[in-house]
Design a protein that fits this description.
Chain lengths: 370, 401
């Protein structure tokens, strides 16, 4: 049938996320005061009319499962299709020994699922990509160009962990692929690909037969001359959350209204799980400026240039500057924080002072008491 | 499917004392406390009390309420054997009529209730803000072996003449009921929340329907009839926050109460959550020049001006240099730069132009002070002043209260 099928890769672990990534896959990392990274991929797919989405998992997925539930927050709780969680049910290696080494190994492990895809086209997205992509337009461009594979790139060469970069020739056709280079060249790949179901199955079988595991080197690089690989350049905001510094810098960009307008555009709403919290309350002596604030926070102290997730408490006399504070964290009286990323359920006791730096934000692990 | 207890929620009120504010919606669909609608309170109380089957009786302008309730999923009322059901008046082979009164509304839905063959029916009202455990009230009803249990609360004696007043004996059984008595004998006021044994109520509803010149009202007919026939009627004492938000003043008061948990209305208490259907929007942004104090803010809002002692719903914008004080702003209200809004309730989607002045403080209004109210969708052009106590319809024309 017509339409797009979504596959989100949420199996990769990123060591540079420190404690933020140690307890969860990077797809479920909280972002933007309300969301998880995977919300952006899910919303992009749903906004392009996708009704079936598979999520490839491999270890550390408790937090992601909690977040996704049945998929009803994205209208993906369906009688037919809808959200499918894909743990490694066909995985041939030792259970839990190692995550997949590449997308092709991951896809081979869920091959029975791929066969049952109802749609003609498949969009594959990395779960840690934060971008509001117009996938409907990407699909039209793919068909127009008569491409075999479309890769979505950002209009920049920013360095990202384990990045993919594309050198693009005339008409947007990709003529060189750089994987994990020391010095980025070409356009930054966003880990998002559009391919027909038929070709994808052929490629999975071909790679499996040759013991090849990587989508990027064994397909994109190796077959760049045989296949028509087309680029689609996305000029909007696109963050890949792969290190603490990247997480921090990209979060702070959301304080810019132009970037928010782009990421949260009205035509393509970003959906997320709803917590049943009340309104946020700013107290009589509270002060909160230049900050994004989720639901159910209570602010009696000072908050500046920060991002607060739902249910955060900032007590009187406390000062929070240039911080990202996750759900239900409590900053007690007279504590002072700057350039801190505080994970969920952290408690900073009265009078404590913690300071990082813009180039070295400090992470407070989930549940820690300082 | 038999249920021990189901709830019937009277949501057909016209909300005429909220005047223009209700616009095209029924009163229970009116926003409250920034993120809620009034009906979220009884619905959440039901689900938190273990009642999974609720009939919502609608009549006037039900579209917004119907779409808000939807499948009932936000309140966990979408179970396979019960859930929330919208019950509008309908035609049968003998004809059909509008609901004549509260009792008639239940009478017309006897068929619905019989489907669940319940032992007990809880009758709720769609315009009260409170948190109550109905299972506790039901336990009282059973323990007292009553035909009807009415929840009551103590009110100041001076205010008693505004309520339905219950006199009780030493066992808190009701001996007398007086609707708005000039000289109250008790200060126990009915909160309009009833538990009935269904078998008894069913018969009283049928008898009441067959009585000509009955107003078919619970307070005026059913309760007095049951008392007259010496049915066992228990009082259930409720302590805690409860407010009827049927008037503009009480709606505004209850919103202000929400800001101060000392009032007893603590919506941040997660042991008894109030659920709501929420909107998709990014978190609120409080800008560099904003000054927000003692106020509630919600997602999707962008605030650059001053906000004091106010309750702001989702997707509200307050421009730079604007000031909002002691006001309640419904979803999507836009206050342009330099505008002032004081002691006002602004309906959904109102746009206040640059430099407008809406409402006034009681101190600066020599006579005739009141809340200023803008109907949903009202748009004020640049520089327009709207005095304290004035009410405007959606075309910006003054209407009287």
């Amino acid at each position: 049938m017509n339409g797009l099928h979504g596959i989100i890769f949420a199996y990769e672990r990123r060591g540079n996320l420190q404690e933020l990534g140690a307890i969860r896959s990077s797809a479920s990392i909280p972002f933007g005061g309300r969301f998880r990274a995977v919300d952006f991929a899910l919303s992009s797919l749903v906004n392009a009319g996708a009704t079936d989405v598979g999520i490839v998992l491999h270890g550390h997925y408790q937090s992601l499962l909690d977040h996704l539930g049945t998929g009803k927050d994205w209208d993906l709780s369906r009688k037919r299709g809808g959200l499918r969680l894909l743990p490694p049910f066909n995985y041939k290696g030792d259970w839990g020994a190692m995550p997949y080494r590449g997308h092709m190994e991951a896809l081979a492990a869920v091959r029975t699922y791929l066969e049952e895809i109802r749609q003609d086209y498949v969009v594959m997205i990395d779960g840690d990509l934060v971008a509001n992509l117009p996938l409907g337009e990407v699909y039209e461009a793919h068909v127009r160009a008569g491409a075999d594979i479309t890769v979505i790139c950002a209009n920049d060469s920013f360095m990202t962990e384990d990045g993919t970069y594309f050198q693009v020739g005339e008409g947007g056709r990709v003529n060189e692929v750089f994987v994990h280079p020391h010095t980025p060249r070409g356009l930054r790949g966003l880990g998002t690909y559009l391919v027909s179901k038929k070709l994808l199955l052929e490629l999975v079988d071909d790679c499996a037969a040759k013991d090849q595991i990587s989508w990027r080197s064994d397909v994109l690089q190796a077959k760049r001359d045989d296949l028509h690989i087309q680029s689609y350049v996305w000029k909007g905001y696109a963050a890949q959350i792969r290190s603490v510094q990247e997480y921090y810098d990209r979060s702070m960009q959301l304080l810019d209204p132009a970037i928010r307008a782009d990421l949260f555009c009205a035509q393509r709403p970003v959906r997320a799980k709803n917590a049943d919290l009340s309104s946020t309350y700013v107290g009589s002596n509270g002060k909160c400026i230049n900050s994004l604030v989720g639901d159910g926070c209570s602010i009696e102290g000072v908050v500046e240039n920060s991002i607060l997730f739902p249910g955060v408490t900032v007590e009187a006399g406390a000062v929070v500057r240039n911080c990202v504070v996750f759900k239900e964290t409590v900053i007690r009286k007279d504590a002072q924080l700057s350039y801190i990323i505080a994970d969920k359920d952290v408690e900073v006791l009265p009078g404590r002072t913690l300071m990082g730096h813009a180039t070295y934000p400090i992470v407070l692990a989930k549940g820690s008491k300082i | 499917m038999k249920k021990e207890c189901i709830a019937m929620l009277l949501a057909g009120g016209q909300g005429s004392r909220l005047y223009v504010l209700t616009g095209d919606m029924a009163k229970p669909a009116v926003p409250f406390g920034g993120k809620y609608r009034i009906i979220d309170f009884p619905l959440s109380n039901c689900t938190n009390s273990g009642i999974d089957t609720v009939g919502v009786l609608t009549q006037y302008r039900p579209l917004e309420l119907n779409s808000y309730i939807g499948s009932g999923q936000p309140w966990d009322l979408d179970g396979s054997t019960g859930g929330v059901h919208i019950l509008p008046p309908y035609q049968s082979s003998k004809g059909g009529t509008w609901f004549k009164g509260t009792a008639n509304a239940i009478y017309q839905n006897i068929g619905f209730i019989d489907m669940y063959a319940p032992e007990y029916v809880v009758i709720l009202s769609g315009d009260h803000i409170y948190k109550m455990d109905y299972s506790d009230m039901l336990a009282r009803h059973k323990a007292a072996n009553a035909a009807c249990t009415i929840s009551v609360m103590e009110v100041p004696w001076a205010e008693a003449p505004r309520f339905g007043i219950m006199s009780v004996n030493s066992e808190d059984m009701i001996t007398e009921f007086a609707e708005k008595p000039k000289e109250p004998k008790s200060n126990l006021a009915s909160m309009g929340i009833y538990v009935f044994s269904w078998k008894a109520l069913r018969q009283y509803l049928i008898d009441d329907e067959n009585t000509e010149d009955s107003e078919n009202d619970f307070g005026k007919n059913i309760i007095p009839n049951m008392l007259a026939k010496q049915e066992r009627m228990a009082a259930y004492r409720f302590e805690g926050y409860w407010k009827d938000v049927g008037t503009l003043e009480s709606l505004w008061d209850a919103n202000m109460d929400m800001l101060a948990p000392e009032s007893g209305l603590d919506l941040r208490d997660q042991s008894w959550p109030i659920y709501a259907r929420s909107v998709n929007a990014p978190p609120a942004f409080l800008g560099g020049s904003s000054v927000v104090t003692h106020s509630a803010v919600n997602r999707g809002s962008v605030l650059e001006g001053m906000v004091e002692n106010s309750v702001l719903s989702p997707n509200v914008t307050v421009g730079e240099g604007a000031a909002v004080r002691y006001s309640v702003l419904f979803p999507g209200v836009q206050v342009a730069p330099g505008a002032v809004v004081e002691y006002a309730i602004l309906g959904e989607g109102c746009k206040v132009g640059p430099g407008c002045h809406v409402g006034g403080t009681p101190e600066n209004t020599p006579s005739g002070w009141g809340l200023t109210v803008l109907a949903p969708g009202c748009q004020l052009p640049e520089g327009r002043n709207v005095n304290a106590g004035v009410m405007l319809n959606r075309n910006g024309e003054e209407v009287s209260k």
